[in-house]
Amino acid sequence: MNDQEFRIKRKFIIKLGKALHKFGTPAYRLEAHLMKVSRCLGLEGNFVIFPTSMTFVLHHDAEQEYNHLARVKPGELDLGALARTDELVDELISGQRNLNEALERIDEIADKPNPYGSLLTFFAFGLSAGAFAMLMDTSWNDVIWSGLLGFIVYGLVHVAERSSKMAEMLEPLAAIMCAFLSCFIATYDPSINIPVVILSGIIVFVPGLALTIGLAELASRDLISGTARIMDAVMLLFKLYFGAFLGLALGHALFGVVPVTEPTLLPNGAVWAAVPLLSIALAIMFKTRVKDAPWGILAGIIAFSFAMLGGYFIGDSIGIFFGALAVGMYSNLFARWMKAPASIALLQGIVILVPGSKTYIGLNALISGETMLNQVEIGSQIFLIFMSLVAGLIFANVAVPPRRNL
Predict the structure, then answer these.
(1) Which residue in 151, 132, 109 sits closest to 15, CA to CA?
(2) Contact residues for 254 (Cβ-Cβ < 8 A; gap 6+)
(3) Phi/psi of residue 261, each to 5°?
(4) 117 Cβ partners below 8 Å, 6+ apart?
(5) Which of 56, 135, 292, 355 is 20 to 30 Å from 201 by CA-CA measure?
(6) Hey, where are the domains in the chain?
(7) 42: how many CB neighbours lie within 10 A of its CB?
(8) How far is CA 174 from the centre of its chain?
(9) Continuous H helices in 161-207
(10) Model's pTM, two decimal places?
């Protein structure tokens, strides 16, 4: 291998690593994938991946070593781009593309616009908020108002994509607006459960998935990345809670505290309609490819069904283990059948199970002493759910070993 060939190979590996990081790949998966790609290209590589930095060490021979350190921003999930990048690597290794073509293709993937467009994404935000309210088993009033707040939140997200200043304050501002508007809505519809409507409106920001990925990184002994991801998620949770608390204070000061009236509850079984609706919204928000979307939606249904089945016999918190086990095995089988990253199915299934909402509710109970819903021992529930999730994923990888790193 001459110096020119070494330069283009290392350039591809570095660009590949940055792209996969941008698309939300967990550190332990990304490091393993980059090592595999390096070996396929005839290089020895060592990689250290953090949420905000990346270190590449590539060896050409005993005397030639290349080090590259990059400062990056935490990635956001883009499952469509992740799948296309994985396909690109397969094409390169199989000889269907050369390195120059692969470099150009990575840039094309990174610059590809949202395949669903602004309108569908707008509806997905409203649908996710309304479907989550259905999962909380409240009332039709809460579902409708939560969906409306979800539309408003997307408006803020749309502005933040074009304004760096807006992006810095997006999450607390969204929480402030949802809380303030909920107080305003209560003056016309006193039957709404204000805390639940607020939580449903901002559920897209609640970092349950980030906490789960952080714990999975810790379980794989990726200690620094896992700790950093968890602390980032905790700070985001604090920002959301402070925004909601401030919005409630402003709303109560301006509109007063409205006595709550008895709402009309959702019919039994409505929660089963919420799961596919939420999965559809997540497929759009995660920018999943159209051909992969049905598999992701099915993953959400499988995760929820097995969690409910396990909860019926053992208990809700431990039942999550069976949901994580089922969706973990399903995602590894999906990766084998479709020759695509397991993350496409796994993340869309796991997000149905993650206790992000319970973490927010537990924080509310800890600070204010009030419970948003009739749930006891919320702290122990959160701990058991997180541990059940991580254990389920570990056991799933033993039962059906993954054939792909992503």
Answers:
(1) 109
(2) 183
(3) -105, 160
(4) none
(5) 292
(6) 3-111, 115-270, 288-406
(7) 11
(8) 18
(9) 164-168, 170-188, 194-201
(10) 0.86
